[in-house]
Amino acid sequence: MIHAKWYLPADRYFDPDPAQRRIARALYEVVADLPLICPHGHIDPWLLADENATFGSPAELLIIPDHYVFRMLYSQGVSMESLGVPRADGGPVERDHRAIWQIFADNFYFFRGTPTGAWLSHELHVVFGIEEKLSGATAQAIYDQLEAKLALPEFRPRALFERFKVKVLCTTDAATDTLPHHQAIRASGWKGDVRPTFRPDAVVNLLTPGWRDNIDALSEVSGIAVHSYSTFVQALEQRRVFFKSLGATATDHAAVSAYTAELSATEADAIFQRALRGQATPDDARRFTAHMMMEFARMSIEDGLVMQFHVGAIRNHNQLIFDRFGPDKGCDIPERSEFTHNLRPLLNKYGNDLRLTLILFVLDESIYSRELAPLAGHYPAVKLGPPWWFHDSLNGMMRYFEQVIETAGLYNTVGFNDDTRAFPSIPARHDLWRRVASNWLAGLVVRGIVDMDDASEMIVDAAYRLARQAYKFEEQAGE
Amino acid sequence: MIHAKWYLPADRYFDPDPAQRRIARALYEVVADLPLICPHGHIDPWLLADENATFGSPAELLIIPDHYVFRMLYSQGVSMESLGVPRADGGPVERDHRAIWQIFADNFYFFRGTPTGAWLSHELHVVFGIEEKLSGATAQAIYDQLEAKLALPEFRPRALFERFKVKVLCTTDAATDTLPHHQAIRASGWKGDVRPTFRPDAVVNLLTPGWRDNIDALSEVSGIAVHSYSTFVQALEQRRVFFKSLGATATDHAAVSAYTAELSATEADAIFQRALRGQATPDDARRFTAHMMMEFARMSIEDGLVMQFHVGAIRNHNQLIFDRFGPDKGCDIPERSEFTHNLRPLLNKYGNDLRLTLILFVLDESIYSRELAPLAGHYPAVKLGPPWWFHDSLNGMMRYFEQVIETAGLYNTVGFNDDTRAFPSIPARHDLWRRVASNWLAGLVVRGIVDMDDASEMIVDAAYRLARQAYKFEEQAGE
Amino acid sequence: MIHAKWYLPADRYFDPDPAQRRIARALYEVVADLPLICPHGHIDPWLLADENATFGSPAELLIIPDHYVFRMLYSQGVSMESLGVPRADGGPVERDHRAIWQIFADNFYFFRGTPTGAWLSHELHVVFGIEEKLSGATAQAIYDQLEAKLALPEFRPRALFERFKVKVLCTTDAATDTLPHHQAIRASGWKGDVRPTFRPDAVVNLLTPGWRDNIDALSEVSGIAVHSYSTFVQALEQRRVFFKSLGATATDHAAVSAYTAELSATEADAIFQRALRGQATPDDARRFTAHMMMEFARMSIEDGLVMQFHVGAIRNHNQLIFDRFGPDKGCDIPERSEFTHNLRPLLNKYGNDLRLTLILFVLDESIYSRELAPLAGHYPAVKLGPPWWFHDSLNGMMRYFEQVIETAGLYNTVGFNDDTRAFPSIPARHDLWRRVASNWLAGLVVRGIVDMDDASEMIVDAAYRLARQAYKFEEQAGE
């Protein structure tokens, strides 16, 4: 790994105390170059399906598609149009990528002290070898360098996948997806291990725009005419078999709340029929999702797919931005979550079953110590996902370690997920996790809580083994 | 700035690690002597309107009017009467200020480790030059010294204002206030920059005791007969013009909840008419406040006044204390807050408007990372006020920096507010903020998250520039 | 105190910074050997009533009865049966205690970084003098050593009570308990100070399984026929007199919520009559508990018993485990709590009464700074119990100190409770508290927030005096 000469100190993210720092560095060195396990994220598989795919311009790589980046600029009064973010109506936006880059560089100081700033610095310096600090003054010179690098074969997606030592990368794919890119990757003979993840939200949430069309698509791809709750379940089961055939080891489910509750088949079908007629109410949708979470737990017990559950974001909070630019534009805002009561029906039915792995992700840190750690520290089926989204940060990770581990133990967590759409940020995110985990463990060592023998195992668990085990990659890899 | 010989170490509030401490000190030295920007507080403008005003006795200065002080003593069984706190019925309370001071000093150990203790120590040592530690044994000797100092011209309010280097100080004033003291200050030729803030709660909250009288007063001072919702709005707009004419750059609004929702003019008027007849219900009041927050956002967009919103305190939680001593007696207790849903109507209508600056203050720290930082990190209109009230403390500030900045960025915050009624505590509070901010930034530097160049700018932003910009003082100062 | 040669460093739990560590060690040395005040816990008084009582096998001592231990093993797929946890139906479980011990040792790594792991290490090394690290390989050799030690007279409960320097130990006892073991201890002439605590939950919570039988038992032990609300109150008052006669200084009350509200005597009796007829509803139970909390506050004001209130756990969250193994099997999960509104009725009636001491315990850390510290920092009757259960840990204590003290002050807290069922863990738990408190105070000293004089008093307050005062042991001891 190449470190830039300045701006990214070799000991970054470690505590300043010399004793702790020395141990943190020693632990980090154990895992710094381990392969990356990427069990959950949003990389477009197309990038890896075509060996000649490229990332486009620096602005296309780092700004235009990244809501972490443009939401911060927008919050300070920079218009989305000036950053080239495409409008839903196809209206005019900035097309000069150098101009977009200049705005970004002029305002790069907004990112001081943020994880986005840390990732971008890593990408520029470690991935692209830029040695100047980004600012309005250096913007165009750095653009030149990036543009030149991006034209080279070694900066194509597959080349970076290999350089980054990605051992396995999972994408996130709709239940109706026929996974052509995953098929192409497999057919190409390329050795990269890229797997789909079954994410059926768009057919489960009855209020999803286009839900009826999605059901038709589900019928078509599954070959099962979905006209009832029972055919719906059959079609989902068929898709899971298909996803598994292309390497999937997990499903993913997102909901505003963690509410679970079982419906009778009659009730479930009545709601489903109302939805087919376009008459589903918000309460129907809420209860149907709650029921389907239980049903997905049942399927996971039967087919072995690990079940991920992401809870707590109000999507598209800003109506104006949603109307003008569409979803995933940096205006999702978390709300308060509750798991103790909401998850009880599911856990009482399936939480003691050793065949189920239910991985929870939350945006409400106040429930780490109150609800999540006690649940994971008791139910065999429950594991905790890493700090998510806004909390995928140095302080977010520290709060997670400090608030979760004492009650849940490290072994009820699943290591790290990078959860990114930004391909070149993958190593930056894993590196941050590995550094923060090393520093946290060094803190335990200097406080006499664990000894170096234990810490040396725990860092490999946190950086690599727990993710590999929880997502069942080792079973498939035959290791 | 004079430092006492002991008890207030020069490096106080900095981390003990030598590397971090060295950097913290270097950053602090950049801002230690910068002028103070005081955009929100509760200083009585009368103190500054009369050049001969004095602070009275040490007990009148530091104990009798300060609910931070007497609530702690009361919690340990010291009666309010024994501390000279005036009773609402005029009943007897202690009048011997030396006796009050002795009780305070005997029990000063209750304040160990509290911000009130830190402020008082700063006031005694730095402002008044006391070199002994306050205790029962030293109480009377220290009283002697304070009494002697307070009799000197250089300890009058205007003299301290200048010694403290207060660049601008905003008071908090009712919508019906004719601001005679502000007018007197302007007329006096004194150069101190003292400005009012428009705080209309007492005419907006329909359940305020005396609301009907307040409306009559509003009619009188505005010259607009308030007999309807539309005349109410006109009168408020007239008052804002008046406040601006005396230098106001901001409004302030307090509510238990952050709930916002727009009413039709007809609905708003129907509620207003019920209130005029003394028939407003709690739900009327709740909905009217929610609507008025949106209306005030509209006014701010039109007239440019910065809008502050303080949320979350249950006022006068202790009925006995309220009945006996009145409001603001240390028995306001926070409750859980919610912003993601409550603020959505206002933000959807006005949150994308670059003319609006909406500064949020909360007492529920669990929403820092969950709701506030994501909102400020997206909506152009939203900025975050500093940690408030109970959280205006070393740990409160550290939690704020650690939980807010990674998502919101420093540049969506507005620096510091001292928010005090206690004039001589102003420099103590700013000094604490500047020290904690320096130490936080030094922590970022030693962890390689920002470099010294960035940190050196960020400390000036946090200590001075962000407040000046957010409250638009620079525009008026022509800087 | 004997320290093991390795694995438990002498400076454990202290910050690594040399300056802070030096001060932490100095403060810790002041309190390390002070007697233990144990005002709240769940030790079976039988252990101390019979001078020949023993702890049984190592598995009986450390695993089978300790839900902290087996819930973590269970969460990782180890069955309760394999750990020898008795089934409610008397069905077969593992009876080979060496086999149970082996499973525990094989999986001891699950406890890395947890307080349970820290306590167990302390027990093995400090209490039992084991010098090897527990693992699958050392399991049987360590079992041999423990078994040999447990057979010695100096490892009987009374001998350890004295070796641990327990000054006073309070048990937790049902209102219907005739306290035979406490009577036996008093009659035995043994000097150990063991006291009961009055815990009437099983007759107050109308939905407790067996409530009707409990009422009959209450009639019998009190000699008052309980057939109405008023006779119920009389019987409770009679029992409090009885508990006081055996040394009780406190009561204890547990509820899911902190809700308090006064009923008229007529309403209270109507609910009580429905309960006697087996017709109480959940709402009846909720309102009756809310009312009884106020009634218990009245009784405490009259008879001087300190009132403890533990809030926030959903008991027996896992129905399968509850059905198979009964209560207290590691499947209690916290929920969100609220105190500002819920406690207001009680505090408005009794919170200003200096005769009342109401000690609050919570499992929801998000209310530390928002609600609890402000309540304790104002109401004379309110004191805060130490971090409880899942939060009785290094990080839990640090969060408590950092989030509570600045607003409440140290002197509105009550020091430490070990709250344990595991007798040999008592010194480990106090030692952890004393170390973390020393380290916290050292942090205040190195930051110049308190001086060494103050810190040296505060550490004795936190480790010893505050508990002794709050629970009124000193009054009875005539000190």
Tell me about this structure:
3 copies of one chain form a homotrimer. The longest helix of chain A is centred in the middle third of the chain and has 22 residues, at 282-303. The model of chain A is unreliable at 1-6 (pLDDT under 50). The first copy, chain A, starts with 17 loop residues before the first helix and ends with a helix. In chain A, helix 1 (18-31) crosses helix 19. The first copy, chain A, contains 21 helices and 11 strands. The first copy, chain A, has 479 residues and is an alpha/beta fold. Chains in contact: A-B, A-C, B-C.
Task: Please outline what is shown here.
Three copies of one chain form a homotrimer. With 479 residues, the first copy, chain A, is of the alpha/beta class.
